[in-house]
Q: What sequence folds into this?
């Protein structure tokens, strides 16, 4: 069985030649496009928020051109519809048929893990706070650092914010979540350094 995703959200996939983007991102973008090509979807929200510094003339809302040119799905081939969206309201304006769907299957990828992917308006928190189930996959996420993680499966399994579960009855092998790991008003998640050990163990 394969999932038919109602929407793919790509967070902050800025151009790989941007001065604030790590060199390894171009390889991540290739991996992301390759994995998405095995999945079923038609609609894509390019959630590229402002990157760079306007005072230095490096600010941009652009998505990497390789992704734009190469993006395709298993079900639609290259005939996927992409729109620049920054909020959930933008998503419903650009893809109005989604507003009538009660249980959306949303697939989120991009960069960077534990930062924009979690906290942007169209990141994990944004959708879970709307009572939606969010899917993702190790090949669709990137974390900034001096070296790639040993295993991003450990990143999902030990995410200090969300309880991710591995999809076992689907060949896409995604993780999904709809539940926070902590009661934030009364609990304290672990420090970032404690969590990062799971990515490099």
A:
């Amino acid at each position: 069985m394969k999932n038919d995703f109602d929407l793919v959200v790509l967070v902050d996939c800025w151009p790989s030649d941007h001065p604030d983007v790590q060199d390894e991102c171009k390889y991540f973008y290739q991996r992301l496009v390759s994995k998405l090509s095995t999945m079923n979807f038609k609609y894509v929200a390019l959630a590229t928020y402002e990157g760079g510094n306007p005072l230095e003339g490096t600010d941009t809302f652009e998505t990497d051109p390789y992704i734009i040119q190469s993006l395709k799905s298993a079900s639609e081939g290259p005939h996927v519809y992409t729109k620049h969206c920054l909020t959930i309201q933008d998503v419903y304006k650009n893809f109005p048929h989604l507003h009538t769907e009660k249980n959306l299957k949303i697939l989120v990828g991009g960069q960077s893990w534990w930062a924009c992917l979690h906290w942007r308006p169209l990141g994990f928190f944004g959708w879970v706070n709307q009572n939606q189930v969010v899917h993702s996959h190790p090949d669709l996420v990137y974390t900034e650092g001096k070296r790639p993680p040993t295993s991003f499966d450990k990143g999902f399994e030990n995410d200090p914010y969300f309880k991710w579960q591995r999809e076992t009855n689907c060949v896409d092998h995604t993780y999904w979540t709809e539940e926070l790991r902590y009661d934030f008003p009364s609990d304290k998640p672990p420090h970032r350094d404690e969590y990062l050990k799971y990515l490099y163990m």
Q: What stands out?
A: The chain has one domain: 4-145+164-180. The first strand starts at residue 4 and ends at 5.
